[in-house]
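Task 17 of the worksheet. Students: predict the tertiary structure of the chain below and write it out as structure tokens. Keep your answer in the requested format; marks are given for formatting as well as content.
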Amino acid sequence: METLEDLITATLAQPVPREIIAMADHVRANHEGVVAVLAYGSCLRGVATSESLIDLYVLTSNLIGVSRNAVSRMACAVVPPNVHYAELGQTRAKYAVLPLALFTKWMRADNPYFWARFAQPTALVYGASPPVVAALSEAVRTTYANARGLGETADPLAAWGQGFAATYATELRAETVSRAASIVAANQDYYRKAALLLGDIAPAPANWPLRRITGKLWSIARLTKAAFTFTGGADYLAWKIERHSGQKIELTNWQRRHPIIAGLTLLPKLLRRGAIR
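Model answer:
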């Protein structure tokens, strides 16, 4: 009898474009003690690597592998993950780094930042799968239980969609909540099978208005931290906002040199223009 863990194992083994494998090898070389590299996001939903950023998660055995800088390691422990930008030939990537143990811990947190992402189909590009399977299985359980807690629906795809829409609203994101439906539509068989394997999992009640407030505070904290740990972060954010909202952000050289001050001054404008929510 198939289990949720079987579904996750099969999904992790899915083939990925060679550009993703090459990028994973490239970024893995920058960190010690890497135990796994995961690929997720739009490039696994049929978007060409030339048209989007490759999204990767680099999981390490401990904080030492996150960074050689002690302050950066501490920042990851307090506000995970640390995010970086990388280029290899004509491809670009945004990759996050954090220890596997911390990654696993956040799959049960009240904040959906991690579990909402990794309830979605993910590929294992490098490393051993058992601990990753356990973490991602927990992400699927947590996400679907929270989705069911939003209201009973007979359609599992509708439940997944309303769950992802709710989690989108807990972050400062350029994408609209309608994007949640497209995420489910891109992998309907996966979400139907996951719901079937989860059966009548108990709905998880949650204070979503409070989650939206605390989630946006977490987003601000991550953006602030990124000013110190994310090389090329300002350009990445501008690209991301334009790609998903159509709102073009012109950055000056001064803004690139002073990302925290620039971010604080740009935030009200971005909110007014609907570039982030």
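Marker's comment: The chain has a mean pLDDT of 88. The longest helix spans residues 208-229.
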